[in-house]
């Protein structure tokens, strides 16, 4: 590849590498992704049996789910995830990391991070209600693919690698993590091809200015990992490989931008909360009603949709706007206040 002089974008990406180390030093993050594509909805609500749990790496277990009666499960494509409804009432999303060709089971992997993942690690057995599969991270057709996965971010990437392997599409995977012991599915990946494994304790802090140039011209680049991996990646790729496409996903909310403060009146509970300009209506509502339902926090699953009884809504969700309602995870008020049915 022709040498190039690092631009401001490249220097910014290099500076972000320090943030990556701070995030991965604790490795207590879910796959954090950015700019999801519009989700493909399916209306399946399923009660599945947990038929197997297995350790996959330090603090990571996999769960295999199946229909209690042995029926086939809804089909899915690489990049899809499930919503899990836990006995505590918590709802969380986990990427499917099994084989889409297997219609009898689903597999997810969970790193112990907080209360929800701890609940799964410590005792999710028997049956669990799930919704999905849904896909906001679809594998596109391309002449070649470069996959970059950080830690538990390997979960949506693994089925993509398997799909490319079966199709004979050229692919390359750079797999990052704290240490090999913390990185799940190394054995499965190794059986699919030559994976570029770069744990921090062997290779140091990942340098995206060295990783992204590995993509072939016009490749589809998939990135899943802690936020510092994605910082500046789009600008960098646009500069060094303008024909390439970057695909990322996140399971954490995007920062609120361009927001103005407003009051949110909760009609049924009788409370009023002030929504700051830099926070979501969901975050403000949870100060008053911590049990309010939510899931994706990005405006594409519809879990947090509520009726609006008064006021004008600025719809920011990825779902079509429905009159008289709002997604409190992303939508805001254009008026000074809103009244919602909570």
UniProtKB/TrEMBL annotation:
Keyword terms: 2Fe-2S, Flavoprotein, Iron, Iron-sulfur, Metal-binding, Oxidoreductase
Residue intervals of the FAD-binding FR-type domain: 43-140
Span of the signal peptide: none
Protein name as catalogued: Oxidoreductase
GO molecular function annotations of the record: 2 iron, 2 sulfur cluster binding; metal ion binding; oxidoreductase activity
Species lineage: Bacteria, Bacillati, Actinomycetota, Actinomycetes, Pseudonocardiales
PANTHER family for this protein: CARNITINE MONOOXYGENASE REDUCTASE SUBUNIT, NADH OXIDOREDUCTASE HCR
Species, as recorded: Amycolatopsis albispora
Domain 2Fe-2S ferredoxin-type: 262-342
Names of the cofactor(s): FAD
């Amino acid at each position: 590849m022709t040498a190039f002089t690092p631009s401001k974008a490249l220097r910014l990406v290099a500076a972000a590498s320090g943030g990556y180390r701070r995030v991965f030093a604790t490795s207590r993050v879910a796959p954090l992704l950015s700019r999801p594509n519009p989700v493909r909805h399916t209306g399946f609500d399923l009660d599945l049996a947990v038929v197997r749990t297995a350790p996959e790496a330090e603090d990571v277990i996999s769960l295999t789910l199946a229909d209690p009666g042995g029926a086939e499960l809804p089909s899915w494509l690489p990049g899809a995830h499930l919503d899990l409804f836990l006995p505590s009432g918590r709802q969380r999303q986990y990427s499917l990391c099994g084989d889409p060709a297997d219609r009898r089971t689903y597999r997810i992997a969970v790193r112990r991070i907080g209360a929800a993942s701890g609940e799964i690690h410590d005792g999710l057995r028997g049956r669990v209600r799930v919704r999905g599969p849904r896909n906001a991270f679809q594998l596109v057709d391309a002449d070649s693919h470069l996959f970059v996965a950080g830690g538990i971010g390997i979960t949506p990437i693994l089925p993509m690698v398997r799909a490319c392997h079966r199709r004979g599409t050229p692919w390359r995977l750079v797999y990052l993590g704290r240490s090999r012991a913390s990185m799940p599915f190394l054995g499965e990946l190794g059986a699919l091809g030559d994976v570029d494994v770069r744990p921090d304790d062997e290779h140091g802090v990942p340098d995206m200015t060295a990783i992204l140039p590995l993509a072939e011209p016009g490749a589809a680049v998939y990135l899943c990992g802690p936020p510092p991996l994605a910082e500046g990646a789009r600008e960098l790729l646009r500069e060094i490989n303008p024909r390439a496409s970057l695909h990322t996903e996140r399971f954490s909310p995007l920062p609120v931008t361009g927001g103005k403060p407003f009051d949110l009146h909760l009609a049924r509970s009788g409370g009023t909360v002030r929504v700051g300009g830099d926070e979501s209506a969901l975050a403000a509502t949870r100060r008053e009603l911590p049990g309010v339902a939510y899931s994706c926090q990005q405006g594409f699953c519809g879990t947090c949709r509520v009726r609006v009884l008064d006021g004008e809504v600025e719809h920011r969700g990825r779902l079509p706007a429905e009159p008289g309602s709002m997604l409190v995870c992303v939508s805001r008020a254009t008026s000074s206040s809103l009244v919602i049915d909570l």
